[in-house]
Design brief:
Elements lengths: L5 H12 L4 H4 L4 E3 L10 H5 L4 E9 L2 E4 L12 H15 L12 E7 L3 H12 L8 E3 L2 E3 L3 E6 L4 H7 L4 E6 L12 E7 L1 H4 L4 H14 L3 E5 L5 H9 L4 E4 L2 H12 L4
Parallel strand pairs: 1-11, 2-4, 4-7, 7-8, 8-9, 9-10, 10-11
Antiparallel strand pairs: 2-3, 5-6
Helix pairs in contact: 1-4, 9-10
Length: 263
Amino acid sequence: MTHKPGFLLAVIFIFQFNGISAQFLEHHNGHSHNDYEQRTPLFDALKHGYTSIEVDIQYHEDKLAVAHDPEDLNSKPSLRDLYLSPLDSIIQVHEGTIFKDDSTTLILMIDLKEEKQRTLKKLATLLDDYKMHLYKRHNGLQTWGPLKVLLSGDPPLSTLQELNRSYFFIDGRVDIIYPSALVNMVDRISASYALVWNAADRDQSIRDLAKWSRDYNRKLRFWATPDKPELWQKLNDLKVDWISVDDLKGYRDFYYSEVIKKQ
């Protein structure tokens, strides 16, 4: 996959995005799984109304490469070039927001794949350059920013405490008990769809997880869900908050034709 320079893509996108019809500017609950595998990473998701995108990163030669696997990392784009630099350009042009005249925050879920402690420390150093754009926590409260960083891939909790960055949030797990100092960092709960697939009553298991998440004021997402409209419908009916998808246009069209009309 080849990528145009981040700044050039951002400029092109801004001109296109500002002229897109209103239906493309409406947001929904789709989560762009492994967004970097899209034809135009980041921009396809924004164009289709996504406000949550997922990126895998690997530490490689003092940079953070965007990749799921550790092979051929020299050929992979960096997190800065593919996401952070274009987002910085968009925020500056839109005078503080990612979406023009819209304060909706974009969630950038970053999955740490290998060498997690080293990767997390490098990520903190990198994000310090963009902290003016980032959603933050302070004394139990949250301060708005156009971009929220959500750490996935079971980030090392001791390193998180050591780094003490107010802009880090956690994509939590149902089977992890988080230290009291980090509980407020857990912003979302994610689980494998396999967790409920073999349950005696799959629908009730999903309902229970969704209710449990809401009781703790967290939103629920499953990973490893097939891109099937019938499953999208079921997960929405069962009140799952975020739907992980690869077919960005397909889910966007489904959401407005099947979900919105029932509300």
